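Reopening this ticket.

The earlier resolution said the output was attached, but the attachment link was broken on my side. Pasting everything inline this time so it's all in one place.
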Amino acid sequence: MRKIFLILVLIVTAGAFNLSYSQIKLITETDSKIKKTYENYIEKSVNTVTLYRYDIDSGEVDSESEKISKTFVDLNKNTLTDISYYPNYSKTVVAFNDSKNISDVSIYYSDNSLMSRVITKYETDGNVKHKIYYFGNSMTFKTINSYSSGNLVRQDYVDSLGKNLSYSKLYFYNSNMLIEEDKFNQADSLEIVFQYSYDNAGNCIEENVNYPGASYTSKIVNKYDDRGNKTESVMYGIGNKITSKSEYKYDNKSLMTEESTFSIDNKPVTKNEYKYDEYGKKTEWKSYDFKEDLEYLYKIIYDEK
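Inline output:
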């Protein structure tokens, strides 16, 4: 859960800027993950999930622990609430409509004042009509979607006065595979081209980001196992040189058991090892930070009906 909400905070706080990745793809995938988490909690009758962090010293777990976060479902209000206690307090409330699609995401400071908000409106067929982004109570911009044959073909970014800030044109393959997004500024100049390639199983094996004006290209190359689990993700920068790498391992149920990140010189940076219960719910993980020489054990406590 933590990664989902960290990504979501990033989207809300940085959405108005010209980011170096496809906002459309990132937001769509993040919304899908949050929706799946909400549905899984309902299906498994999970009311509350609490995350604790334990310090590890010489392999022993200290008696002291920190409450990192608490996530809970309110079926009466159709909401999923995530409260972060560490390193700083914040509260994220995700509201769902009757179709279990995200309708409102609000993030609050410790004094319960609004940090940011995203309101999503849908077409009758369930496609996203538009999203309105707020910093505090002030609207900053709005994204408006246009569709053809069920596929998103254009997204416009407009400010609070309705002035067009930028727009993207999108191209799909087989209806559900985004193969290219061309992002233009308000002067209709092409600024960024995002391109995606897939294998025969529909897995995204390469993500390219091109800046025509700067003649600069970066890319991410992904590898998968026979079950469609991503096993490696390598990022390339200037001169097609590797800038970072991530590796993933899974058990026989396709549950991720380990993920590691490596630096530009292929030295380990972080590693996470995960454990699950018999129902496939994550129960704990060990986190290693090789740069800071830190090691923590995280445990997840589920409160079920």
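Reporter confirms the inline version is readable. The first helix runs from residue 2 to 14. Residues 2-304 form a domain with the Porin fold (CATH 2.40.160).
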